[in-house]
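User: Could you check the structure of this?
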Amino acid sequence: MTDLGFIHRFIPATQPGKPPLLLLHGTGGDENDLVPLAAQLSPGSALLSPRGKVLENGMPRFFRRLAEGVFDLADLKVRTAELADFIAAARKAYGIDAPVAVGFSNGANIAAALLLTRPQLLHGAVLLRAMLPFELEPLPDLAGKPVLLLSGSNDTMISAAGRERLAAVLQAAGAYLVYKVLPTGHNLTQNDLNLAAQWLKEFGLEHLT
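Assistant: Sure, the predicted structure tokens are below.
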């Protein structure tokens, strides 16, 4: 679908009571990328999956970067607001509750930006290979908002300082944070999927009811 400002897919829920998932792909992905993953994470949830509008060497992203790990902060601000407006419009159009964002890499970073600037739009987030997108003062009120942050100890794209800073900011803002560093790189593993599925079942849903 191309309405609501983003090319996107929407898949209605087949199991009532499960939170909708907002799927945010990594660089080079699209609106189809995370749909199979989401079916493993929370079977039966409604799925809202937009395609990033920025192209980097022909590969879709959600915001521009100046170099690896160096974000175009002005563009990030605009793109985060644009995505926030899309989420609000999609909730009305499809009649869904505030979603849990599930983001990988670039998608996880813009999900973190949403948490820090428009937290009311999300019930929570699963951040797969994320770093702090920008420093923000004052911090938002994330009291009790469930967030799962899964990082890779051998991730050459995200420094230990970047992921640790994100965890610290989320905790300082009051998020109900589960943070794990796994023995892997930037790629996702079955362990990531197992942990995220378990978190959505035991932690995420507990705090969404």
